[in-house]
Every structure is written in C-alpha cells, then in structure tokens.
Predict the structure.
Amino acid sequence: MEALRLEGLGKRYGRKPILEKINLSVRPGEVYALAGPNGSGKTTLIRLVTGLAFPSEGRALLLGEDVHQTPQARRHLGAVVEAPAAFYPYLTGRENLRMRAYLAGVKEEGRITEVLARLRLLAVADQKVGSYSLGQRQRLGLAAAILHRPRVLVLDEPTSGLDPEGVELVHGLLQELAREGVAVLLSTHHLQEVSAYAHKVGILGGGRLLDEVVLEGREVFRLEAHPLEGALALLKTLPQVASARMQGGAILFEGSPEVVLQALLKEGYRVQALGPQRFDLMAYYQERVKHA
Ligand SMILES: Nc1ncnc2c1ncn2[C@@H]1O[C@H](COP(=O)(O)OP(=O)(O)OP(=O)(O)O)[C@@H](O)[C@H]1O
C-alpha cells in the first residue's frame, strides 16, 4: 500500500487558487522531493499533508486513512513544517524531547539519546534550547520528528539554515530512514543535493504538479552523431528509446545504447561519441518551469 497518497488535493485562499488537483503518492522506502519556484505552493502542500491546513478539495491519505477526517491517521506521521521548529527555550534539548516523547507515548529514555546521537546533538543535549544555534534547533526539530519512529516523514526544506556538515548529516539520515522503510516527502530548492538519492521529484508550478521525474534506475546516454537532426528523428522512432532530446550539440536519450548504435550505423550516420551521462535534473527542472 502507498504510505502517502494525495487525491485531487486543492487549496484556495479566498478566491485565489493556490493548489489545484494534486495527485501524488509516496511508497514505503521512497523519497519524494517537491521542487518549484518561490510561491509555487510547496509549503501549502506540506501543511495540507500534515493536517495543519484544510483542503478546499480532494484528500490526503496516510496509510489509507484520511488526515483531515481521522485524527489518529497522524500517529504514523513525523513532520517538520515550521523552521525552526518550536521548542521551549528554557528547557534543554533532552527535556524538550522527553516532553515530546511523553506526548507521543514513547517510553524508552534510550530512544531520546539515540535520536540525539543520530542528529549529532549529544554535546548540546543538556543545554537550554534558547542557547542553540539555528542549525542545532533545526536538527532538534528532525530529532523530535523521528522520535516515535514514524512510517511517513514530511519535511519542509529540511536543510535550510544548516552548514555543509549538517546538510550531509540530514541527507544521510533521510537515506537511512528510507532504507528502513520510511516514506519521505520533502520540499527543497536544492535539487542537485537530493537528486543523489530521491526516487522521484515532483515539480510544482502555477498551482499544479507540472511533472514527476522518476530518478530511480534512470540511465541517460549522450550521443554525438552526424547529421544530428536526422539522428534525433531516427531515435524518436525506436521503441527501445523512451525519450530523446537535443542538448548543446548532442542528443540525450534514455533507452538501449546498443539498439541506437546499430540503427544509426545501419542508416549510414556517423557516430562520434556515445556514452552514459548523469541525468541533469537542474537543466530539466529549469526547462520545465520555463515552459509552465
Ligand atoms: N494563509 C495564506 N493566505 C493567503 N495566501 C497564502 C497563505 N499562505 C500562502 N499563501 C500564498 O500561497 C502561495 C504559495 O505559498 P507557499 O508558501 O506554499 O509557496 P512555496 O512554494 O513554499 O514558496 P517558497 O519557495 O518561497 O517557500 C503564495 O502565493 C502565498 O502568498
């Protein structure tokens, strides 16, 4: 079953539509990154999914239960929506987590130490949160979100305000959690960073989900051939080629390089270069948003 499923989700403020007909799903163990320009509705979507905002249409299901109809649906949810997350400044990090653990019904004290260690906060665990840096508070927010071992984790820009080490730490943690079976939905402006491990990227624009890019198992090849236009047209006719487009004097395609090479040689094309190419998510995103 999908861990998280949005069905025709929409939100209007007054008459202004902010989001319309958003359909997406995240499976257990999958990392889904939401990207989009400022104001495209990423935070609004995350607020809807976590139950902090009410949809004007559609619904959000957490492990099959409607977030807005069934309050218990959120027991499987961990979230960091506001940055930095709200904590009692006159209590220590450990005391804040102890309070969260009590509210979430987590009884083992060892779990608090475990998440503090996982977020590299043990050294400051017994200091008042009021004295924490922004990055430390950000990491404490994540520690609190995973305390009760949620099966779905929803995070609004989890790496904003973090130093490079903190960014690495959070990305590493999210990958680990996904491997443990947690479904992760996060919003980000840092596509290059998440493209290393996100399974899917959803691109929001103009209140709609413009595109979903599947990154898992994606293999792209770069081809230089002469004449290039004809080669592109030929590739587009091959059933073994899933996609092909021109980029900077070469063709980028997804599909079988062996079939492509054979077809080109058979038709008398001159093949100058053919090899694997890392999928350029940033270029794809810019192109997609430009034509939105
Ligand atoms: N409470 C509200 N009332 C009216 N409009 C709102 C409200 N909250 C958000 N909006 C509008 O909804 C749109 C989407 O905002 P949102 O914060 O979801 O975008 P975002 O993609 O998260 O942006 P950013 O990348 O800057 O964080 C914006 O035009 C914003 O002004």
